[in-house]
TrEMBL record:
PROSITE patterns: PPIC_PPIASE_2. GO terms for molecular function: peptidyl-prolyl cis-trans isomerase activity. SUPFAM superfamilies: FKBP-like (SSF54534), Triger factor/SurA peptide-binding domain-like (SSF109998). Transmembrane segments: none annotated. Residues 203-301 form the PpiC domain. Keywords: Chaperone, Isomerase, Periplasm, Rotamase, Signal. InterPro entries: OMP_Chaperone_SurA (IPR050280), PPIase_dom_sf (IPR046357), PPIase_PpiC (IPR000297), SurA_N (IPR015391), Trigger_fact/SurA_dom_sf (IPR027304). It holds the Pfam family SurA_N. This is Parvulin-like PPIase. Residues 1-24 form the signal peptide.
Amino acid sequence: MRRNGAVRYGRLIGAVLAIAAAGAAIGQQATVQDQSMPDNTGLDIPANLQIFGKLDPNVRKATAIVNDYVITGTDVDQRVALIMAANNINLQGEEYDRLRLQVLRQLIDEVLEIQQAKTADVKIEPAEIDQNFARVAKNFGKTPTEFAAFLREHGSSERSIRRQIEAEAAWSRYLRRRVEPFVNVGDVEVKSILARLEAAKGTEEFHLNEIYLSATPDRSDQVYANARQLIDEIHKGKAPFGYFARNFSEASTRGVNGDLGWVRASQLPDALAQAANQMQIGQVAGPVAVPGGFSVLYLVDKRQVLTADPRDARLSLKQMTIKFPAGTTQAQASARTAEFANVTHTLQGCGSVEKVAAQIGAEVVDNDTIRIRDLPAALQQIMLQLQVGQATPPFGSPTDGVRTLVLCGRDEAASAQLPGAEQIQSQLEQQRVNLRAQQALRDLRRDAVVEYR
């Protein structure tokens, strides 16, 4: 697992956050007692050091000049508004202030990326930005004009997201010109990976997302408490796990929502492997102590390497739904649901669904491409046991209505195949491009002239 920097190359629009910046001011003196901790930094820090002043995050304002390019407070506010609107969250107080600092850092990175791309004669034409803006608008279910109005309504602007689009496109093109040509993966390496995959056939592997927080020994308790607080916020369901990974993780995977992809227990540190083996799909675990800090894990899915998974079977379904009028009481909804359940028992295969639905005023929707693993976990277990022509028990709510799924057909999952050599090579090359992109961005940050106002 990569721990440093942010994966920028090929990231999705919307993954816009980096680690928070902080500032310090010189003022009155304070003495820190000797903690008897070994100096592992290589910085030759005195054992009995003095802190001249106190940490004051307010000293560093949300405005900066980056190599003569000005980032204003309005730029920061509009990007923050965009993030909150895209994630459907409303942050206040310290959480809001922390997000503003993180956004400032992201905007600084964007400036550096655009400036560096220009050194390679990379220029993103307005027509390309227009095309990508329309694509983002479509992801929100809106036309470009409607999306621009949506941004203004939420305190953001078309200019803010266009700037982000320009930075991502410029950096991606820069990497293709200056990094990708020098990344090579040999045939021997590819064959070695294929051999390891074959040897691991049948081994369980996990699709994990991770939030990694670094912690020195003297900060261990505080970082652990911060991780616990993150887990509490995740459990509240205010935002998806990926939002917290983008905001707070210090691993390189934060640029892709903390996604570690598919990994086997043997590829993980012992503590993470032990946690993954005990997790259920959809569960969050942690904080897990790992070398250098703590991790919070989210189990997206699990499977066996190169083994057919029954949950990959594709189903042909008919969904029958009844909806309740506004003002329906719980008692009325329960009675109507019981009637619905009785009716579903009279179904004689999929051929009778439309007739029964017409009798009880239900809606019918067909779908022939559903995988079992794409259904909620509770329904997955039911569908695995269901025979063709049978229906699930009713499910739903008084507000959303009650549904049943009728199984009309099942295409069993085929045996998994080894990935091709070209696919393995492409994945390795992409990983190495990502790593070099991280290194390049760290160098740009180090060399940049940044003045905070």
